[in-house]
Design a protein that fits this description.
Layout (H helix, E strand, L loop, with lengths): L1 E5 L6 E5 L7 H8 L5 E6 H17 L4 E6 L8 H13 L7 E6 L1 H13 L5 E6 L2 H7 L4 E6 L2 E8 L4 E4 L9 H17 L2 H7 L6 E6 L3 H10 L1 H4 L5 E7 L2 H8 L4 E4 L6
Parallel strand pairs: 2-9, 3-4, 3-5, 5-6, 6-9, 10-11, 10-12
Antiparallel strand pairs: 1-2, 7-8
């Protein structure tokens, strides 16, 4: 098992990475905490694929567990959904010793983390990301939040998880477009910080096309131009193309080795 420490002083925690890690979570939990009860916050489609396995693993280790199901969309990050979850925590007689397991992608993690940061003025929670994007981004760093009519993530807090459990096995059921979305985020890390990391991801002599969706042209044009001098000598960047929609970007990918700047894909 790989353990990556996130060093934040008294708020430090580990990221655990292992195939089939979902079966080992109860053992790790029993070493770290002595919870009165455990609450899994997730969505129907995720529970259908992995909920029973996690629940059985917890029960077999004598860990009491309840499940709270939220909406299967971004709408779950709302004040209304937040209030429903809080009510269920009280119904389950949760207290300060209770812990939350956020089983899902960014929506689940953001809402569950915010619930954990505010219930009883803050309880422990663990991230179990099920999408590539949440594994490499939203489950790490303690950003939590919900949306309002005025905008996204305008109500939230920083509340670090006790640990992040990354199980690549959970990606088996992930739609391919969601895999591309996560890879797109990984590619950005290379653009922002480490070109050597980026070069490892791109096969030699496979000139990639940078595709920018037009609605985000201003946002990404400076990034593409700013990196131009660094990536031009490398076979990575063959040309930059602007398209008018995600659909056209996806169609372009059927014929070219390309990276799309719209939080969409690397192919």
């Amino acid at each position: 098992m790989i353990e990556v420490p996130v060093k934040l002083g008294p708020k430090s925690y580990n990221i655990f990475i292992e195939n089939q890690l979902i079966s080992l979570i109860p053992t790790i939990l029993k070493k770290e905490v002595s919870p009165k009860n455990i609450i899994i916050i997730s969505q129907d489609i995720i529970l259908k694929n992995y909920g029973k396995q996690l629940l059985d693993n917890l029960s077999n280790n004598s860990l009491k567990c309840e499940i709270i199901t939220i909406s299967n969309s971004e709408n779950a990050k709302s004040l209304n959904e937040y209030q429903k979850v809080i009510k269920q925590l009280f119904d389950f007689k949760c207290d300060r010793s209770s812990i939350i397991l956020a089983l899902g992608g960014g929506v689940v993690g953001d809402l569950a983390g915010f619930v954990a940061s505010t219930f009883m003025r803050g309880i422990k929670y663990y991230q179990i990301p099920t999408t590539l994007l949440s594994m490499v981004d939203s489950s790490i760093g303690g950003k939590t939040g919900i949306n309002t009519k005025q905008g996204k993530n305008l109500i939230g807090s920083y509340h670090q998880p006790k640990a992040v459990f990354i199980d690549p096995y959970l990606l088996k059921s992930l739609p391919i477009e969601e895999v591309y979305s996560g890879l797109g985020e990984i590619v950005k890390y290379g653009f922002i910080y480490n070109m050597q990391f980026l070069e490892k991801m791109v096969p030699p002599n496979q000139g990639a096309v940078v595709v920018v969706v037009a609605e985000h042209k201003l946002k990404y044009k400076s990034i593409v131009q700013g990196m131009g001098n660094k990536i031009a000598p490398h076979a990575f960047a063959k040309e930059t193309v602007f398209v008018s929609s995600r659909e056209k970007a996806q169609a372009y990918l059927q014929q070219h080795y390309a990276i799309v700047f719209d939080d969409v894909v690397l192919k």
